[in-house]
Design a protein that fits this description.
This protein is of the alpha+beta class and 330 residues long. The chain contains 13 helices and 12 strands. The protein binds flavin-adenine dinucleotide and iron/sulfur cluster. It comes from Streptomyces lavendofoliae.
Amino acid sequence: MKPYGYVRARSVEEATAAHAAHPGARYLAGGTNLVDLMKHGVETPGTLVDVSRLPLDTVEEPPGGGLRVGATVRNSDLAAHPLVRERYPVLSQALLAGASGQLRNIATTGGNLLQRTRCPYFQDTGTPCNKRAPGTGCAAREGVHRDHAVLGHSPHCVATHPSDMAVALAALDATVELRGPDGERTVPVTEFHRLPGDHPERDTVVRPGELITAVVLPPGTAGLPSAYRKARDRASYAFALASVAAVLDVAGDGTVRHVALAFGGLAHRPWRARLAETALLGAAPTEDALAHAVEAELGLAQPLRDNAFKVPLARNLAHRVLSELAADRP
Ligand SMILES: Cc1cc2nc3c(=O)[nH]c(=O)nc-3n(C[C@H](O)[C@H](O)[C@H](O)COP(=O)(O)OP(=O)(O)OC[C@H]3O[C@@H](n4cnc5c(N)ncnc54)[C@H](O)[C@@H]3O)c2cc1C
Ligand code: SF4
């Protein structure tokens, strides 16, 4: 048992000040990931700054449209929110595809975005892992890596990002609001998580001490046809082998007016399929066009020894979701 301090913050200012005052502090939200990692000895915070009761638990409609989701809104509340279900169904579906009802009742929007990889070596302090202990090596590259990345990995890390919610947010062009020692800033979700490169220990672009205060869903993707589909080993309570979040808007003349496609379970971050999107924008979404677009994107894949199956799995998922959205228009 390693002792640690505990501070319950009542305001954003109190939270960031407490974090700054306690070197080695971590923010604690629902605790469903952080506390597990503390039990495994992977995270060893000197102090937990509890942000779970901050007044950031509302979903608001900003004057310009869209939705502003506070960082402590619970996953189950966000999934069930009438405006989310109506305007951003892909987000509601992604949330409901994640974890279990009990976990979603406690897990928060901010914590979900910052959950760490489920690579088993990362969670096992007895094995080499560059993400947990930089410079020790990557046990997964030649070890058990069936669940690992096929896109954007590096010699130093082949882990995937586990969040379903983040994949939907990437497809919706959502942004993350942060408050830290240097003030406030906003980061697009597509740039929030990093590829591993030479520094797999850094999952995201979040700077030391920064607190997520909100996630903003833009008006531009509100109400567009969208869907989330996830393939996994069990029907529930399992992380994605591959998943797809898609937004597809077809104009009256039958050509694609807006398209966004993001993959989960394939990379160290939600993977926006820009090649596929470029191929589809302005084209008629025929079965051939959809197939070629998805193929162009997944041509970038570099599977590991035991996870080549993810490429056709992701291809079929993406094709089916896009095809259904294209067929579903009025
Ligand atoms: C058995 C199991 C199955 C699961 N299955 C899935 C699944 O299928 N799909 C899926 O997407 N997820 C799944 N999860 C993960 C779950 O969604 C996450 O654990 C949860 O979303 C994390 O949210 P939290 O509020 O509990 O975060 P915490 O555990 O409290 O925190 C996680 C991280 O975020 C940081 N943090 C929290 N809030 C903030 C903030 N506002 N600002 C800055 N930093 C912050 C913490 O310091 C910590 O580093 C599963 C978890 C379990 C245990
Ligand atoms: S894939 Fe990444 S997280 Fe897993 S062992 Fe390798 S370095 Fe660690």
